[in-house]
UniProtKB/TrEMBL annotation:
One of its GO terms (molecular function) is oxidoreductase activity, acting on the CH-OH group of donors, NAD or NADP as acceptor. Keywords: Oxidoreductase. The keyword Transmembrane helix does not apply. It comes from the Bacteria. This is Nucleoside-diphosphate-sugar epimerase. It comes from Nonomuraea solani. Pfam families: Epimerase (PF01370).
């Protein structure tokens, strides 16, 4: 147990929230950033509902990725930083710089502030979008050595924001970081227990399935990881001796799961609560046609029928990660949303 202080950026976020709970459980003092301190009481209530321990060791500071103000105060006295905050994954982005610029520039703001404050290590949340997208249908097991091409098939504005932000972070570390170290975490599709009422990331697949909001499933396969394992990887990466200067893919280690299989799991496990889950498949030709007119279908069309394989060997070896299965993550996601009435009755 330690009383060392850790800064977690974006405290209202899904991954950040689970990181904060894990840090508090392990005895750290935690400071987190929010864009407005008016949300502190609301966010504390979410953490308390999720079983937060040692809430008195959690403090808040106002800081925005698009502004310089507040970051020096945020990092003051912190030994480590988990930079989790990032622009939300938005569909139909008219100007992709609305996503890319704050992700890249916000990352550099955090890194500069961390360096100036003498922070030992920054753990940056990147994404599988920076690793395993845009390569085409290659017969390959993706590892941390892979980088997604900016203009590859299926790489959208969110993907480019993650690629450019992580590359900018590594360039900063090489040129300007001084003694501050960097580790990056690249999770695949993140599912698991929802905190509060916000549903984000791959949990939306589960929510939309339970709500019957999809007419059917495309022939799409999703590599899944549980959010609790993503949080565990972040916390381990702060202090693991071999983690400095490394990227880590965080995944269950299983092959990507078919979306129609996610639906089958929900129908089997949740009975009447899953009565709206679709059983139909959407023909590939329909998805490809939709991709001609709607940008959000382009990443799906690019990967139709492609089962991505992802190695988690490095995270197991250097971070001691023992991840849950995709099945556990899917069930935990659905359980939490049903319990919170975040799906249709």
């Amino acid at each position: 147990m330690t009383r060392e202080r850790v800064l977690v950026t974006g405290g209202s976020g899904f991954i950040a929230g689970h990181c904060i709970l894990r840090l508090l459980e392990r005895g750290y003092d935690v400071r987190t950033t929010v864009r407005s301190l008016r949300r502190e009481a609301e966010i504390r209530a979410v953490f308390e509902e999720a079983g937060m321990r040692r809430g008195d060791a959690l403090s808040f500071v106002e800081a925005d990725l698009t502004k310089d103000g507040g970051w020096a105060e945020a990092v003051e006295g912190a030994g480590h930083v988990l930079h989790v905050a990032s622009p939300v994954h938005t569909e139909n982005v008219k100007d992709e710089n609305e996503v890319i610029t704050p992700a890249r520039e916000g990352t550099l703001r955090v890194l500069r502030a961390a360096r100036d404050a003498g922070v030992r290590r920054v753990v940056l949340t990147s994404a599988f979008h920076a690793v395993g997208f845009g390569h085409g249908r290659i017969d390959h097991v993706f590892t941390e050595d892979d980088w997604s091409p900016l203009g590859g098939p299926g790489v959208d504005a969110y993907g480019r924001s993650k690629i450019l932000a992580e590359r900018a972070a590594w360039e900063f570390i090489r040129a300007e970081a001084g003694r501050t170290e960097l580790t990056t975490i690249c999770p695949v599709a993140v599912m698991g227990p929802v905190m509060g009422t916000a549903v984000s990331g791959a949990n939306r697949i589960v929510q939309r399935s339970l709500n019957g909001d999809m007419p059917g499933y495309p022939d799409m396969y999703v590599p899944v990881v549980d959010v609790r394992d993503v949080a565990a990887a972040h916390v381990a990466a702060m202090t693991a001796p071999g983690a400095a200067g490394q990227r880590f893919l965080v995944a269950s280690g299983e092959d990507a799961i078919a979306m129609k299989e996610i639906g089958a799991i929900l129908r089997e496990r949740f009975g009447d609560a899953a009565k709206r889950v679709p059983t139909r498949s959407i023909p590939n030709v329909v998805v490809r046609l939709a991709a001609l007119f709607k940008a959000e279908f382009k990443p799906v069309a690019a990967d139709l029928g492609y089962v991505k394989r992802v190695s988690n060997e490095k995270a197991r070896r250097l971070l001691g990660l023992r991840p849950r299965t995709s099945l556990e993550a899917i069930i935990a996601s659905a359980d939490s949303m049903i319990a919170k009435s975040l799906v249709k009755a």
